[in-house]
Amino acid sequence: MKFELVGMLEGQLNANLDEKRFLHTRGVAYTAAALAMRWYKYEIDRVMIAGYMHDCAKCMSLPQQLRAAEDGMIYLSDYYLQHPKLIHALVGPAVAQEEYGIFDREIHDAIRTHTTGAPDMSVMQKIIYVADFIEPNREGIIMKIENIRETAFTDLDKAVYMIADRTLEYLKKQGADIDPLTEKTRDFYKKLIEEREGVE
Ligand code: DGI
Ligand code: FE
Ligand code: FE
């Protein structure tokens, strides 16, 4: 068990993130732990590490993030360079490895997809994507989040769909440029749920 490592990471992040981001991060780690209890595919400590690491690059300046991308040989498309808010997810795995000593590939995947989601995610990826949205500190910010919270514990794929759909709706209202991956995530999980319901 790696709970000592979990405690150590929490301390490091407390020092490196601002207070609001730290509270969010801890919320994601514990929400992810609860989801891991329900969907029981991994050791809980591993999922907590993914939760603690998911925004580890978020408090770095953009030049620092770009440097981390270069050092980690991570390709950033023009779209990402035009939307710097999305970059922390892509460079997160490299930062988790270099700054925090986390080499677990499944954790890296969960960090990488936590903002946009992706089609056909692993359970770990889905847990982190969902936990990022439903953790307790999100209270009051997102309308009807209670419904998504409940669904996260009854139907994880449906919760992913609901979050992707809600995110797209929000981005469209803001007039933001949509990452094709966000749309692909919504479409993939919509189809999955429809096919499943058709069969039942
Ligand atoms: O890092 P967090 O604040 O916890 O949350 P996040 O990583 O899920 O989202 C970071 C930002 O990215 C947030 O302001 C919403 C935005 N975002 C998510 N999907 C897209 C997006 N922005 C654009 N332009 N396009 C997207 O598809
Ligand atoms: Fe994030
Ligand atoms: Fe987050």
Q: What is the gist of this entry?
A:
It contains eleven helices and no strands. The protein is mainly alpha-helical and 200 residues long.
Number of strands: 0
Structurally, the number of domains stands at 1
Identify low-pLDDT runs: none
What would the CATH topology be?
Hypothetical protein af1432
Multimeric organization: single chain
> What is the CATH superfamily classification?
Hypothetical protein af1432
What is the architecture at the second tier of CATH?
A: Orthogonal Bundle
Largest sheet: none
In helices, the fraction of residues equals over 70%
Bin the strand percentage.
under 5%
Ends distance: 39 Å
Total number of helices: 11
Folded structure, characterized:
This protein is mostly helical and 200 residues long. It has a single domain (2-197), classed as Hypothetical protein af1432. The protein is built from 11 helices and no strands. It has helices spanning 3-16, 19-39, 44-53, 62-71, 78-82, 87-100, 105-112, 123-134, 145-152, 156-174, 180-199. The protein is globular and about 45 Å long. The protein starts with a helix and ends with a helix. The chain binds 2'-deoxyguanosine-5'-diphosphate and fe (iii) ion (FE) (2 copies). Residues 24, 55, 58, 83, 85-86, 89, 114-116, 132, 167, 171, 176-179, 182 line the site of 2'-deoxyguanosine-5'-diphosphate.
